[in-house]
Amino acid sequence: MIDAVIIGGGPGGLSAALVLGRAKREVILFDEDQPRNQVTAHSHGFITQDGVSPVTFKENALADLKKYPGIQVENQRVTSVKKEGNVFVVEAEDKMVKARKVLLATGLKDGLPEVKGVHSFYGKVYFLVHFVMAGNFVINRCLYLQRVIMHICSRK
Predict the structure, then answer these.
(1) CA-wise closest residue to 74 among 83, 62, 57
(2) Is the CB of residue 55 less than 8 Å from the CB of residue 62?
(3) Which are the contacts of 63, defined by CB distance < 8 A and separation ≥ 6?
(4) How many angstroms separate the CA atoms of 103 and 4, rounded?
């Protein structure tokens, strides 16, 4: 049994995997590689990575994760999560794992307006910026993620 399964390979899931791996936890990160920002040329707001392409950001993050032997990355979709007693059973396309904790870091999906031609502008001159609209919601989510990681690290 591993310490944690992380579902979602965006910045939140990658950061959680890094922190848990550094804390010598056994972690599997499941990522189906369908990032919300795949249409953009540059991502912003991540220290030391501001302005890099989403592809470069992910490559850099995965290189960081490889430094820690307790982190495993699986490029597949999770199909079910069930709790059996104190254990989570996570099933993916071709893998089944048992974990003490599950962290959902699946992120957001944009709902584009039904306007003719909007897809040709999306990611070029038309962007959805959730954190500006969400305000304190994002800060609260980050603080919650920090508490979840600390809870996982404090148990073994």
Answers:
(1) 62
(2) no
(3) none
(4) 7
Q: Taking CA 53 as the corner, what is the angle to CA 50 and CA 57, rounded to the nearest 5 degrees?
A: 70
Q: Report d(CA 13, CA 113) in Å as an integer.
A: 28
Strands 27-30 and 71-74, sheet pairing? parallel
- For each of the chain's 156 residues, which pLDDT tens digit applies? 999 999 999 888 999 999 999 999 999 999 988 766 666 766 766 667 777 888 888 999 999 999 999 999 999 999 999 999 999 999 999 999 999 999 998 876 666 667 777 767 666 655 555 554 444 555 555 555 556 656 666 655
pTM, whole model, 2 decimals? 0.72
Residue bearing tokens 């290189």: 63
Give the span between the Cα atoms of 144 and 117, in whole angstroms: 38
DSSP state at residue 124: T
Distance CA 91, CA 97 (A): 7
Q: What angle do CA 152, 60, 35 make, to 5 degrees?
A: 75
